[in-house]
Amino acid sequence: MHPDLQKLLDADKVKPALAERLDQIAPGKYLLHSSWGAGKVASWDLPTKKLTIDFEKRSGQQMDLQFALQKTLPLEPDDFRARKVEEIDHLRELAKENAVELVILLLQSHGGSLTVDGLEKEVSGSVVDEKVFKKWWDSTKRALRESKKVIVPARRTEALELRSGDLTPAQALLADFEEARDLKGMAKALEAVVSDSSLYKDDPESLKPLLAQLEDAAKKGTRMQLGLALQLLSLRDELIHGVKSLELEDDAPRLANMLLAEEDRLGEAIGGLATPRQRAIYEVFPEAFGDRWVEVITKIFDEVGSRAVTEIARLVIERGELPKLEEHIRSSLARRSLSSDALIWVARERKGSAEKVFGGDVGAAILNLLETDHLADGPRTTTRLQSLLSDDKDLLADIVAPLSTTEAKNFGRRLLECPVFAELDRKSLLARIIKARPETADLVSGDGKKKVENLVVSWESLERKQAELDDLIRVRIPQNTKDISIARSYGDLRENFEYKSAKDMQKVLMRRKAELEQELDLARGTDFKGADTKTANIGTVITLKNAAGDEQVATLLGAWDSDPEKQIVSYLSEAGASLMGAAPGEEVDLRDHDTDAMVTWTVVSIAPYIS
């Protein structure tokens, strides 16, 4: 204990527990502050309760004694963070000469475990120059994996783990597998074993317990975790291929047999695996399914993610079966059943492997899938497809290139009506079509018809209209579609009242949807602030008086804001049209709602509308 504290303790001026805590921040001791990092106490003045601390990031920092007790943690002298205070040059040299040892020291100071982000925070900028940290860490990762002293994770968010004991590299890898608690952990550990399979060429017997363990785990995991079970067997086969003297036992589960037995579940199971593992599994399909392998693999082509789509296509093409894939794509396009990821592959390969199946049908399928996903409940599944349509500047031009003029116009109209895109995005996309096919320009010009003016509306009324459209798209139209489907199941559509009624309602709903979309396309929201009050204008309150001396007030607002009970008039109404532009002292004729007779009123004053 520090002599100053011992004197206070002997004089019974401090309690033993407080003395022990104060001794942790005595001169010469190391401590850690959340903002200033590690530091060494240079001196203290107990009577004034002040400390002077040389922090890693702030030297000679004075701190109140009580504050230091509350805001710092004690560090052992051999802690990596403490060593950064006085041995920073040694640590920097260690980072250059023996990065593995540096990382081990750091992990020992953190209980044997630390994320890559945590390591970067401790090392970058202080021990390793921030500009070269990424390069340093890439080389250090390789050295760590070769040393087998540290478990290096695949993701930055996962922790580096310090191995315990003096195991050989081969033993350390097997120990990691044995310690795995689930199929995911087993697969991760097994990948490391496969990666360094050369370590076992002279001792293949040491792998047999591992093989038995993983095969048992794969059997048990088939029902609930089929993808991981397939991954384990695929990795096992790769390991056996790498260690030539290893052989499968006669009763060991075969990957091909598992694929055949679980045919109906393969799409979902394989789609979530890493790309190299997917490809290894797909390569077993010919063995598993024989002559049917292309049929089976193209079936899951529509069910798996983007990585799987690419790998399936590549394998089918390499095996000379592209015509069968093209046939499948054409059939799926006709049924509108091709998945978002499959459509993305077709679009990206339109000048390559998918050239023969790319055309107008692809564009129609894309819009159909975007609209269906927009109407469906749940998370969006077509975001990447929508982004492709926007980001690929030539895609729309390539879609409409082979179409007739009528077909190109119809495609452009459907794009304009697609609820997925914002107004400006729709116009931007349509401009690409018009650039590629100038004869479709009347989609914008309207064949010389008078241009419809924008509608000025309040934000409140705009929100009401948008809410009505959203309700139509998300609730009423999908429900009507279900009603039609149910009514169709009743049979004999000629005498089916429920079916006819549902189809009639469909026409009403779709017509209303088109009306709302057109109105919202023209609408411009406003809060009516800053209205010109020299004359009656949108966003003004007009005081009127008739010949009998009766007075009334009319508020002139947006196109959808009429409320007769509150004397709110739309500028598009008959009364609104009469009031617009009238100045104080001028007369206007307004229809009396009770008698339908026209009454002359004089504008007395005009004031701004305040919401």
Automatic annotation (TrEMBL):
<keyword id="KW-0804">Transcription</keyword>
<keyword id="KW-0648">Protein biosynthesis</keyword>
<dbReference type="GO" id="GO:0003677">
    <property type="term" value="F:DNA binding"/>
</dbReference>
<dbReference type="GO" id="GO:0032784">
    <property type="term" value="P:regulation of DNA-templated transcription elongation"/>
</dbReference>
<feature type="domain" description="Transcription elongation factor GreA/GreB N-terminal">
    <location>
        <begin position="457"/>
        <end position="523"/>
    </location>
</feature>
<dbReference type="GO" id="GO:0003746">
    <property type="term" value="F:translation elongation factor activity"/>
</dbReference>
<dbReference type="GO" id="GO:0070063">
    <property type="term" value="F:RNA polymerase binding"/>
</dbReference>
<keyword id="KW-0251">Elongation factor</keyword>
<dbReference type="InterPro" id="IPR023459">
    <property type="entry name" value="Tscrpt_elong_fac_GreA/B_fam"/>
</dbReference>
<keyword id="KW-0805">Transcription regulation</keyword>
<dbReference type="InterPro" id="IPR001437">
    <property type="entry name" value="Tscrpt_elong_fac_GreA/B_C"/>
</dbReference>
<keyword id="KW-0175">Coiled coil</keyword>
<dbReference type="InterPro" id="IPR036805">
    <property type="entry name" value="Tscrpt_elong_fac_GreA/B_N_sf"/>
</dbReference>
<feature type="coiled-coil region">
    <location>
        <begin position="499"/>
        <end position="526"/>
    </location>
</feature>
<dbReference type="GO" id="GO:0006354">
    <property type="term" value="P:DNA-templated transcription elongation"/>
</dbReference>
<comment type="similarity">
    <text>Belongs to the GreA/GreB family.</text>
</comment>
<dbReference type="Pfam" id="PF01272">
    <property type="entry name" value="GreA_GreB"/>
</dbReference>
<keyword id="KW-0238">DNA-binding</keyword>
<dbReference type="Pfam" id="PF03449">
    <property type="entry name" value="GreA_GreB_N"/>
</dbReference>
<protein>
    <recommendedName>
        <fullName>Transcription elongation factor GreA</fullName>
    </recommendedName>
</protein>
<dbReference type="InterPro" id="IPR036953">
    <property type="entry name" value="GreA/GreB_C_sf"/>
</dbReference>
<dbReference type="InterPro" id="IPR022691">
    <property type="entry name" value="Tscrpt_elong_fac_GreA/B_N"/>
</dbReference>
<feature type="domain" description="Transcription elongation factor GreA/GreB C-terminal">
    <location>
        <begin position="533"/>
        <end position="607"/>
    </location>
</feature>
